[in-house]
Amino acid sequence: MAPMPTKDQVLQALRGVVDPELGGDVVELGMIPDVTVSEDGVVTVGIALTIAECPMRSQIEQDTMRKVGAIPGVRDVRVETRAMTKTQRAEVMTTARLKARENAEPTLVNPLTRVIAVGSGKGGVGKSSASVNLALAIADLGHRVGLLDADIWGFSVPRMLGTEERLEADEDRIIVPVVAQGIKLVSTGLIVESEETALMWRGLMLSKALEQFLKQVAWGDLDYLVIDMPPGTGDIQMALSRLLPQAEMVVVTTPQKAAQKVAIRVADMARRSFMPVIGVLENMSGFECGHGEVYHLFGQGGGDDLAQSLGVPLIGRIPVDEHIVSGGDRGTPVVRAYPDNLSAQAFVTAARRITELVPPAQDETCTARVARLLEALDAPADAVPKTVTSLA
Length: 392
Description:
The structure is a single chain. This protein is an alpha/beta fold. Helix content is 36%, strand content 19%. It has helices at residues 7-14, 57-69, 86-102, 127-140, 157-160, 203-215, 235-243, 257-272, 302-310, 322-330, 334-337, 342-357, 367-375; strands at 18-19, 24-25, 34-37, 42-49, 76-83, 114-119, 145-149, 168-169, 175-176, 178-180, 183-187, 224-228, 248-253, 277-282, 287-288, 294-295, 314-317, 387-390. The protein is globular and about 65 Å long.
């Protein structure tokens, strides 16, 4: 049985909830007036918004529930939103301006970009194929997508996307991503001399490479950044949670029980780092022969069991399909080359589910209206009634 969560744990998790427009987390901006933790594991978080009708309200509420809900021992999360007073708004805007002036942005990933880390407990489960096809499927849904191949040693994404372009830097020494099949791509495979070159880097160098890909790459205005993570729970995973606290994870597993037991470790690592797991993707789910009969070559039920144990949805089952393998080798991903295949349709369904669970940030922002309200606001903000949102 998980120990009771503490208020300090809740506040630490809330530091991963970023107000995209103000560019800071809700704790440092002073947007959390109160936090209570009941004996039965129910956490109530009060959030003071700049204005009650802020378009970012839903995103902040949902991010709060996912971040706090990832803490072991939390049974339910209730979010109470209220509007700030004029004085509170002025203080928050002052804090935001001071932070923007004194502290450079930690990365060049726009705060409005939703970050989806695709992880697995071990290699060989098709994580990179899943990352590529999910990224393309999300792009085909009409979103601006970037793909970061963070598997520094085992890079394979460039081949899967059929590109041999090299990464280049602009006059400011900022790396310009390669555009492959309509998405922005960064990978060590676009730097080394050839695909056969071995990168003999130790842990610190791996973390520094990831840091460079986030701090010195002109990602631009993306809706989603998909990150193909290396397998396991090492330096890259820990660095990502530090560099991109808004990141959320999709865990890839195969149906066999052994893979599910290993995959739960990467989910445990994510939650220890306050990185919410938004869903499980079961790969190699079954093989359907030409007569319509399905053969479960890699077992059955692992994805469902993992999702149930984590308390997250199973976002998709990807069947065994030779076109996933051959398409990856030829640089023709199945979602583009064979859109009518069951596997391609399964990837599209999973991508759509991801965008439902982690919707893109709304285009409209609050800053302009806040500035006007600070100058002239007749009605007192505290007159606006509180609203309560619950995880349960």
